[in-house]
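Blinded run. Sample ID left blank on purpose so nobody reads anything into the name before looking at the predicted structure. Input follows.
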Amino acid sequence: MITRKHLLITSTLCTIIVFYCSASWASPQHKQKFLYPNLKNELIETTPKEYKSGSTGKINGKVTNTAGSPLSNIPISIQLLTEESIYGSDFEEVATTDKDGKFKITGLTSGNYIVRAGPSTNASYLANDKFNVPVKSNKTKKVKLKLSSAAPADAEYVGNAVCLGCHPDQKDWKDTAHANTILTPTSESVAAPFNGNIITTSDGKVKFKPFTTNDNYYVTLYNVADESVSVTYSVARTHGGVALAGKQRYHVKIGNSYYILPIQYNNRNVDETNPNAAWVSYNPTNWYNSDNTLITTDADTPPNINKSFEQNCEGCHVTGL
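Blinded prediction complete.
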């Protein structure tokens, strides 16, 4: 005969078994530990993260004029930066600012975006772009954009001669750093000695040779530990180098974009006894792997297409991009 005592014992045993099964076999996957091989062929322990399927990010923004007043009815467009994308080639209008100048963009896949405000429907303001806006899954990125007023429709370019009629004190504008930021490389615009010496920067991250051939300027980059591996670029533009700036960088053109070489010449810090000391590295990780080897040895292939001058610098440093 089954008594209450037997039923109690049976029930207790079942509970223990079920609890043991749950703890042993039904534990959630994200709490389990896994071993993965890293690049050094060693095992490392890691806890995998849980990601929701199809999770997306958001951009919240505000558009104002240069005085800080909110601008309404300004169209907002975005472009996802990919290896195939060219700046300005694939903008998509996705929102319009409200009466407070605010806008929201949802459902964005992870990546870096260009966010463009304008041009407004009445063409009262010039468009403006925010470059490399990072979007992550389940995160909200906030951005602010200011728009400058557009010139009247009948406005024409008159040149510095007319301007100097009212502003004679600005006659030396051609000698300013702003007027000489980007120049074609010549004996007058290049501040550094392109003398053919092979130089290693003091931090040991870049090895290069600056040289000239038939009045053209070139830079050869080497694997830091192996000069037999190299790539040579033609310098397309100088960047800075006037007395006010005190430093100069060098652009190369790859495809339709410009890239800043991983070297900088500090012409304010020239040591006559060691002229190479004025050369320093500039963002070497854009051109070199962690083991100091070149990312690419093909002069027609950018080492990182998302690091072009257009995508990272011109939006703030060039007028009327």
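Unblinding after everyone has recorded impressions. The chain has a mean pLDDT of 81.
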